[in-house]
Amino acid sequence: MKVLLVAHRYPPRHHAGVEVYTAGLARALVRRGHRVEIFCADKDVARADRTLLRREHEGLPVHELVNNLLHDDLRESFLWAPAEEAFERVLDAARPEVVHFTHLLYLSLGCALRAKARGIAAIYTLHDFWLQCARFGQRLRDDDEVCHELEPAICARCIAALPFAQRGLERRAAPWVARVKRATGLDLSPALRAGARAARALRSSPASDEPSAAAVADAARALAEREAFVKGPFAAALHALVTPSRFLHAEFLRWGLPAEKLRQLRSGIDVRELVEKRTARSGPVRVAFLGTVVPHKGAHVLLEAWAQLEPGDAAVLRIYGNTSYRPEYVAKLRSRADSLGVELRGAVPHARIAEVLGEIDLLVVPSIWYENSPLIIQEALALRTPLLVSDLGGMRELVEEGVSGWRFRAGDAADLARALRAVLAAPERLSALYPRGPLHPRTIEEDAADLEALYGEAIAALAPGGKR
Fold it and tell me: Distance between CA atoms of 391 and 177, rounded to whole angstroms?
């Protein structure tokens, strides 16, 4: 079977959950005898915008569209003709029998309709809430508050304030940076990013970022169009929308996606890469955060909880993760961490995840947004790493109290401090977890087998006499 996997970004430059999952699925499908190619996007102002490049990763063809976010209209952030045209060129080159979308951020929802127009079967995996939340699919407002309900007026104001496109210095200078790189090989993009950050820091006041009434009204219209498109033509173009958690399935069903299109199928992980490397504890309890250091991942909640403890020599806390995305947040977090004697250790390459998980006694996942099926939790389960997680979204489903760890109220530093005190008061509780051994999550091999069946079903539905 010829399969085209479509993701917003792809390794080796990007290693967040969707990218890691998509690459793992590609490898598993190849092992099952399928031919796999990838279509993705990347933002890189050192390359000409809208350029479609071909490269290889792990022996597989990767078609990468440069999207430097030089949009003129909010609608281009979800329906962007250049991405659809590039997608059609990839369809011409790859000639897939089925397209599996794992994310379309930085691409276009219209890609699904382009596949349908060519009679190519397509499915979409819902890794987050991007289909219903245009702000990166996290259901978080610009003040990092969780949207427990979707309210159109709040969404419109939030999206109107969203920097959906390059602005100012970055927008003006990006074409020149690409030309210099092409002509001389000199990459000025780091200097451009630094200059843009400095310019943003010098802006007069946060009030200047408040969207106008006209901008809010336009955002409201755009979001209404987006929702109608997703629930109508987009969903109709797909054979199935896969939901990796019960929580996500219920939320999208409640939102109005057609029940007959939703298929619950938990995403698998590549357990072959997870060789247990546990080191015995002979000193303090080793507590850790492992994830991107941004507000919605909740590292600040963990630090506030830690400040309420008096761990002394009983415990140490380390924070691992990429610190490049929100420098103002990271600066405040670093200052707070220093005052508490907590180490910020930087990002961990995915190849070292098993090693790091083996060096800690308790992994805290304090996310304040509706995580779907976090890869790090599944990896911890496979490696018998005790967990303490927010009682929210898909995280709640994955951690069984007293078996693989415990849960606490999301965003509640006091409740997290309570849970941490209970562990530090009786650390032997950590050793009592996983009484039946590793809780192997669903493997990528099992996932690929089920998806293979779904692909076949989607292809058959398009055959003469097939039932779509």
Answer: 45
| CATH number of 230's domain | 3.40.50.2000
Paired sense of beta strands 52-57 and 60-66, if any: antiparallel
Same domain, 84 and 105: yes
Q: Is residue 153 part of a domain?
A: yes
> For the range 145-149, what are the long-range contacts, defined as Cβ-Cβ under 8 Å and sequence gap of 24 or more?
146/368, 146/369, 146/370, 146/410, 146/411
Do residues 85 and 160 share a domain? yes
Gap between the Cα atoms of 135 and 343, Å rounded:
31
* pLDDT tens track for 389-422: 999 888 888 888 899 999 999 999 999 999 999 9
Domain assignment of residue 224, given as a range: 2-164+206-268+445-462
If asked whether residues 244 and 345 sit together in one domain, one would say: no
φ, ψ of residue 316 to 5 degrees: the values are -130, 150
DSSP 3-state of 248: helix
pTM of the model as a whole: 0.84
**Token representation of residue 114:** 């382009």
